Amino acid sequence: DTGVSQDPRHKITKRGQNVTFRCDPISEHNRLYWYRQTLGQGPEFLTYFQNEAQLEKSRLLSDRFSAERPKGSFSTLEIQRTEQGDSAMYLCASSFLLAGGNNEQFFGPGTRLTVL
Amino acid sequence: AQSVTQLDSQVPVFEEAPVELRCNYSSSVSVYLFWYVQYPNQGLQLLLKYLSGSTLVESINGFEAEFNKSQTSFHLRKPSVHISDTAEYFCAVSEFRGGSQGNLIFGKGTKLSVKP
């Protein structure tokens, strides 16, 4: 296992189309996070899962966004009816929650979305 | 609400010069503090972290950061930089709540450019 992987690495789509991204976390990591990074900004938290349960969602996650982690392993992030403002790098991170609360997050390379 | 301020968006320095990248945070509860580094065309990597204990933490490649609770700062320093340190550096915080570490809140990043 070489780390968190994301697919695709790049996605170009037209406004109004739906897109789906996939994240494969490090094996046995029970937490999975999605972040979004726009140009000139740091990553912004979108949502996270512990196993298959989605425990928290940011206000940034509008109704057009949905995330799943059906078997507690890989996760998908879907954006419906994409808008130009959705253009960003979408980052996935995973961690293993230890007793005491320390759970270092390991990041994937990201999926760069461009909405035309 | 938590927030992170990185005061410098770009820091140009000459090789072998010292550097300090500044980071201030705000939070009403106990926090964990992190510095992540993003090399060109690569994903985010954890550089160092403060969870508890000694307020001075070090990385394996010569960086160090000091947690200053009274000034709510976590500045990153290196006494002598190399060309290979050219990257974007992100400061991040997470709250300790519900018995574990929450999601990360990032600053906007500082681009360190090391010149020969």
What features would you describe in this structure?
The complex is a heterodimer of chains A (116) and B (116). By secondary structure, chain A is mostly beta strands. Chain A has strands at 5-7, 10-13, 19-24, 31-37, 44-50, 53-57, 65-68, 75-79, 88-95, 106-107, 111-115. In chain A, the strands form 2 sheets. In chain A, strands 2, 4, 5, 6, 9, 10 and 11 form a 7-stranded mixed beta sheet that branches. In chain A, a hairpin with a 6-residue loop joins strand 4 and strand 5 (44-50). Chain A is globular. The mean pLDDT of chain A is 92. By secondary structure, chain B is mostly beta strands. Chain B is 0% helix and 55% strand. Chain B has strands at 3-5, 10-14, 19-21, 24-26, 31-38, 44-50, 56-58, 64-68, 73-78, 87-97, 100-101, 105-106, 110-115. In chain B, strands 2, 5, 6, 10, 11, 12 and 13 form a 7-stranded mixed beta sheet that branches. Chain B has a 4-stranded antiparallel beta sheet with strand order 3-9-8-7, with no helix packed on it. In chain B, strands 1-4 form a two-stranded antiparallel sheet. Chain B starts with a strand and ends with a strand. The model of chain B has no long low-confidence stretch (mean pLDDT 91). At the A-B interface, strand 5 and strand 10 of A face strand 6, strand 10, strand 11 and strand 12 of B.
